Amino acid sequence: MNKTQETLYQRALRVWGKEPQMLQVIEEMSELIKEILKNVNRKKDNVAEIVEETADVEIMLEQLKCCYNIKDKVEAYKTDKLKAIEERLNLWEKTHDK
Ligand SMILES: [Mg+2]
């Protein structure tokens, strides 16, 4: 997130409040879940809706990181987690002849 985006997220948290914005995180995640389920379970052609809801969730997750001041910790955890995923994939591919 760049400085302009961070300023906007902080402004949203200040103007609309932290609790309502954190509930909005949940609402947007549930909207994305619904679109994924429609796509997978009902074979609905809804990629446009998935794009929209993914953007909504990403925006709200950025606000969540601002709200709890955890941007750097999340980034560090992601780096470690991605390393672990890569190691698991390497092992899987070595043992499953991919
Ligand atoms: Mg939405």
Characterise this structure.
This protein is mainly α and 98 residues long. The chain has a domain at 3-69. 87% of the residues lie in helices and 0% in strands. The model has no long low-confidence stretch (mean pLDDT 96). The site of magnesium ion (MG) has 4 residues, from helix 2 and helix 3.
Task: Describe how the helices and strands are arranged.
Elements: H1 3-16, H2 18-41, H3 47-68, H4 71-95
Helix pairs in contact: 1-3, 2-3
What would the average pLDDT be, to the nearest integer? 96
* Bound ligand species: magnesium ion
Helix/strand order: HHHH
Specify the structural class.
Answer: mainly alpha
**Care to count the β-strands?**
0
Major sheet: size, sense and barrel closure?
none
Our estimate of the beta-strand percent is: under 5%
Give the fraction of residues assigned to helices. Answer: over 70%
Task: Give the number of helices.
Answer: 4
Distance between the termini: 36 Å
Shape: flat
Task: Evaluate the radius of gyration.
Answer: 17 Å
Which stretches of 5+ consecutive residues score pLDDT under 50? Answer: none
Brief sketch in words of this structure:
With 98 residues, this protein is mostly helical.
Characteristics:
4 helices; 98 residues; binds magnesium ion; mainly alpha
